[in-house]
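By way of example, what follows is a protein record of this kind.
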Amino acid sequence: MDPFNNTMFGNLKILNWNANGLKTQKPLFAAFLVRHNIDIACVTESHLIPSERFNISGYSTYREDRVAPIASGGVAIFIKKKLDHHSLFLPQLFNIEATAIKVKLRNGTCCNILCAYKSPNRRIMLNDFLSLFSFNSPTILVGDLNCKHQLWGCRVTNPNGSRLLNFINGSNVNISAPDEPTFHPWQYNSLPDILDIVLHENLNAPIFQQVLPELNSDHLPVVLSFLFKPQLTSEPQRLITGKVDWDTFQKKFDDILKAPVCLNSSELIESAVEHFTSCLCIATRHATYKQFRKPNNKFLHPPTRILDLIKSKHVARRQWQRLRQPWMKRRLNDLTRQVKRELDEYRIISYKSYLANIDQNDSSLWQATKRVL
């Protein structure tokens, strides 16, 4: 069984990625989430400011932006809207930026998902970790803490890595790291290392980690897969699902509605309410003659030629990371610019097609207007 294939098995998939600036990578990022069927994306160094809007279609967003003269730092969590979840309050932290959500699982339990980032020049403080792991339920913290230790596969050990290990040894928190470097500096004389890690507590399930040579950052995205499954939210029942002929509705409603003679007990009142509701639904379905179209975001499913170009860029990036030849870096830069240009052009074409298919006789015009406002 492939733990990363949640299309078949419904496993929870979490992305752990240091974006080093998310705003300019939105098209690539959105396509990545769809291509890998990511349930929750934890992004560090988002470089967003509080006044900026940044949304991904189909995902709810929870952000903790850094307030600074220049856009830097910051964390964000993107979770599929169809997953049962809510935001989680975190106490004040000193040297760590973090945001959190609570996700309901199909086995009836809940799991806390935390996204955290610590700048390299800041010292780890014990109180921050005590606050982050103050829950009694399963907790998963993912992110870039800039803590290196040879115990979890890093090339070297730094002081913050030793402090983190001391905290882990004195608590019930465990650490999990990928088996290959996630940070590849752009400088030729710098060596790659592991920076993007996972801390977890009260978690009785294995964690599978896969490092992918994708996206545009000095950090590679890490996809985490868990064998437990998230709980889906129940879709609300909609009375009106299309265009309704109200004259037909009125006639049908009058034909099937039976007005009660008297309502002198609670049982009769409840029965009358149920009958009225049933007649309302039957008449509405009978009078609906044109179903509303479901929105289809074609941009999230680019054509094969763009997907092949993205794969070529991934191969070039992996080759450059291994051999570090200058001509490989130039080729990678050329492919990166070409992918961005192709995605931008495809996004414009898709949006023009979307505007051309808007129909004033259904909800598409209202949906388009609501997106602009």
